[in-house]
Amino acid sequence: MSVQAEFDRWAAAGKDKGMEERHWHTAKEALARMPVESGETVLDLGTGSGYALRALRETRDIGAGVGLDASTAMVENARSYTDDPALEFLAGDFEHLPFAADSIDHVWSMEAFYYAQDPATVLEELRRVLRPGGTFFCAVNFFEESVHTHEWQDTVGVEMQLWDRERYREAFRDAGLYVAEQNTVPDREIEIPPADAFPTEDWERREAMVDRYRTWGTLLTVGVAP
Fold first, then answer.
1. CB 39 within 8 Å of CB 102
2. Where are the beta strands (DSSP E) in the chain?
3. Cα–Cα distance for residue pair 6/212, rounded to 1 Å
4. Is 184 left (phi over 0), alpha (psi -120 to 50) or beta?
5. pLDDT tens, 13-52?
6. Would you call 90 exposed, middle or buried from its count of C-beta atoms within 10 A (0-12, 13-18, 19+)?
7. Which of 212, 201, 210, 189 is nearest to 23 (CA)?
8. How many angstroms separate the Cα of 94 from the Cα of each of 25, 104, 180?
9. pLDDT tens for each residue of 127-164
C-alpha cells in the first residue's frame, strides 16, 4: 500500500485526532526548543491534522506555516480545523518539495520522516529549501533503540525506515546539515498503571511500558543549515 493510501484510510477513520493527542505529549517539549521568531516561515513535514503549525501560530507568532502531507485526506482534514489564512496545507511527497531554495526558516516533522522511501533525497531537499541557519527538528518514536516500537511495522501497510541514533546523525551530516542536538524526550503524560495491573490489553510487563515511554519516548534530532 502507498503512503497516501494508508494515511487516507487513517484520516477517513478519524485517526488524525488520536495521533495529535498522543504526539502532543512530547511534541510540545520539542517545539518549545525550536528557535522560531515572530514572522518566520515554518514547514511541517507530514503535517497530519496540522496541530504543530496551529500551536506555533498561537504561541510563537510565526508569519506563515505550510503543512505538507502525502495524504490528500489528511490535508483536507487539516484545512478544516483552522481558518487562519497564514496556514496552508498541501498534498505532496517529501522528495520533491514545492519551495524555492533558501525559502524556509525552520522545518518540523513528527512521526513522519521514517515513512520516506528515499530519506537521503528528503534531507537534500530540506537542505535546499532551508535558509542559512535554519533548523530541521526531526522527531520520531519508531527507532532502533526503542525496541518496543519495532512491532509497528507489522501493523502499517508501508515500509518504514528503522534507523538508530547514529544513522540519523550520519544522514543529516551527509546531506550537509550540522547536527546541533540529539536526545530523547520522555513521555511523562501517558499513564502507566502499577505493576499489579499487568498484563494489560497492550502490555505484558510494566517494565516494557516504562522503557517505551519513560526511557526512550521520542528521539529528537536537530539539524542546522550552514
1. no
2. 41-45, 64-69, 87-91, 104-110, 130-140, 178-185, 218-224
3. 25
4. beta
5. 887 888 899 999 999 999 999 999 999 999 999 999 999 9
6. middle
7. 189
8. 25, 15, 22
9. 999 999 999 999 999 999 999 999 999 988 889 999 99
**184 CB-near residues (< 8 Å, 6+ apart):** 215, 216, 217, 218, 219, 220
**Distance spanning both ends of the chain, measured CA to CA:** 37
Count the Cβ atoms, other than its own, within 10 Å of residue 118: 13
The amino acid at 33 = R
Look at the chain and count its residues. 226
Short-list 178, 157, 161, CA closest to 169? 178
3-state secondary structure of 26: helix
CA gap 155, 164 in Å, rounded: 20
Mapping DSSP to helix (H, G, I), strand (E, B) and coil, where does residue 7 land?
helix
Residue with cell 526531526: 138
Query: Between vectors from CA 19 to CA 24 and to CA 189, what angle results, nearest 5°?
Result: 40
| Mode of pairing for the β-strands spanning 130-140 and 64-69 | unpaired
CA angle centred on 18, ends 15 and 21, rounded to 5° = 155
C-alpha cell at 212: 517505551
86's grid cell: 497564514
